[in-house]
Write a structure and sequence with these properties.
Order of helices and strands: HHH
Number of strands: 0
Radius of gyration: 35 Å
Strand content: under 5%
Structural class: mainly alpha
Largest sheet: none
Distance between the termini: 82 Å
């Protein structure tokens, strides 16, 4: 009886310890992770919002309307046209390259597949 009691007590203790440790670890991990995420999100949101507001306010306040007007008046139409032309050329080149690459890849793949499977 004493030996059986000791064995059963040891087995039951080991099993209960393992089960309760696993359950407690899972619950605590989930709760602490959720709490930490909520706190970090709130803190980061508050800090980043405050910093961004301060920076934007300082920048927008520091640039007076007179400076903006002078800069925009000083930029001639020729410069704007040149910039617009360069941007359009770059965008169109990139778009055409992407489209041509896709089309040629598809056509070549189809041709090679047809030739190799024939």
């Amino acid at each position: 009886t004493a030996v059986l009691t000791a064995v059963l007590t040891a087995v039951l203790t080991a099993v209960l310890t393992a089960v309760l440790t696993a359950a407690l670890t899972a619950v605590l991990t989930a709760v602490l992770t959720a709490a930490l995420n909520a706190v970090l999100t709130a803190v980061l949101t508050a800090v980043l919002t405050a910093a961004l507001t301060a920076v934007l306010t300082a920048v927008l306040t520091a640039v007076p309307t007179a400076v903006l007007t002078a800069v925009l008046t000083a930029v001639p139409t020729a410069v704007l046209t040149a910039v617009r032309t360069a941007v359009l050329a770059a965008v169109l080149t990139a778009a055409l390259t992407a489209v041509l690459t896709a089309v040629l890849t598809a056509v070549l793949t189809a041709i090679l597949t047809a030739v190799l499977t024939a």
